[in-house]
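Lecture 7 notes: from sequence to structure.
We start with the chain below.
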Amino acid sequence: MALRRLCNRGARAVFLDRHGLARPPGGATTSPALLGLIHDLGFVQLDSINTVARAHDLILFSRRPQYRPAHLKRLYERDGGLFEHWTHDAAVIPRAFYPWWDLRRRRDAEKLRHQWRNWRRDGFEDQLTAVLRQVERDGPVTSSDVGRKEMRGSGGWWDWHPSKTALEYLWRSGALAVVGREGFKKRYDLTERVIETHLSDPAKAPDTAQTIDWCCAGALDRLGFATPAEITAFWGHLTLPEVKAWCDKRRANGDITQVEIETSDGRLHRSLSWAELPDITAAAPVVAPSKRLRVLSPFDPALRDRKRAAMLFGFDYRIEIFTPEAKRKYGYYVFPILEGDRIVARIDMKARRGDDTLHVQALWPEVSIKWGQQRQRALEAELARLTRLAGVQSVSFANGWLRGGGKPIGTNPA
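Predicted structure tokens for the same chain:
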């Protein structure tokens, strides 16, 4: 029996619809509305780099242009709609999902206790007790509030002072919760003072089998179609063998089925989808993606899986913040630009807040994309909207900003 097949354009339409990028940008930014968006996405990754706006802010802005950072802060810190933990990276997550992180917290506790207790941490258990007592007495606290007399490093976790290590362990394993951030520094408090008992009681937590089912089903819902490896990577909780076993069971029950996805270069890629989805060979009913240009974060949910972005969009992207400047192909922090269901360019820009300007250093159209007057007007309109998120008033363009053989179009280079 022939497998159902989804053409490349249909696959992109399904994928963008699941990631909130098909409909025209817009919508309310009240706490309930913003929580609904994050629920649909699953989570929003946090990142500290602020060349234009932090990743989590740009992710939300690209879908809700009226969004401002204060909206997320209100939802997270005042209204208690979110909690912070890890997926593939640090993220804010709907608080209703907290019980489904119990397995992750238990697994993190086992892994990190072994890793950190055996890494120059004499008296690690005593350190945990001391920090927990301080948080109970003084909380909420930041890493600067604990271990004031300890030697402090400037690197990664291997260079943390002992109390910082204890704070991180207590958070990752569930004794503490993050209640917000000062700048980008986490504030920790006792979980029992932050998360409602019906969500945080370990006795009421789902078991491993229930968590596997929730994670796999939720990932497939949000991806539309996926391989076991892609399902595994979505939340970051499970092992590949656990996901493969879930897929095998669900296929045997007829719940999910194998499909063929046409890639951007015309090849066929086998994937899995829910069997009860509408016939995805007729993708026309899927919402046609908005033609408005959108600047995306490099950590946007639609792009964080670089292999999937290459498969669906023919978009080969790597972030170059850790690449020496002389070896960078594009720039330190380059933003993809989405137009409809295509990624049409990437742009290197930075908010020069001292000059009150969003400065475009370079833009590279993708192969076969012509950068004409219409796209230029659409870009300038999007950058004007973006200035409000970046906290600046105007846009400037460097000399020779349009790369790839193009010529600057109707702008006033700075």
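Points to note: Confidence is low (pLDDT under 50) at residues 154-159. Residues 373-390 form the longest helix (18 residues).
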